[in-house]
Amino acid sequence: EKDSVKSLDLSANQLENIDSISQNCCLTLHLECLEKLELHQNALTNFPEQLSKTLKCLTHLDLHSNRLPACPSYILDMCCITYLDVSRNDIGPSLDLDQNTRCPSLKHLNLSYNQLTVIPEFLGDVLEKLEELILE
Q: If 0-12 CB within 10 Å is exposed, 13-18 middle and 19+ buried, where does residue 83 land?
């Protein structure tokens, strides 16, 4: 049985990108069972789409206090994600969501302290299980 990491905290490291994590096959093998990923307080401007496909068991993703210009829709396609914090980024003025996207697992979404002026009317349809939406 291979060793797998369940939780990874890379917060407060001034990271500008994490592409190397998703591009290193030896490393991604150990992250397939990752459940919690903390990337807050860095300088990230994106979250690699390939990484969202690799992290099949991820339930908790904290990206607050970075420089994300948008919340990538492919994060919402992650099958197990229940907690997503993208507060204190540069997301806005609108939340770009495909009306046909369905995120069956997300329960907690924090969008506070971004540049948002518009929230899609169909947000509840996209986020079917949402219990908490924070928009301070």
A: middle
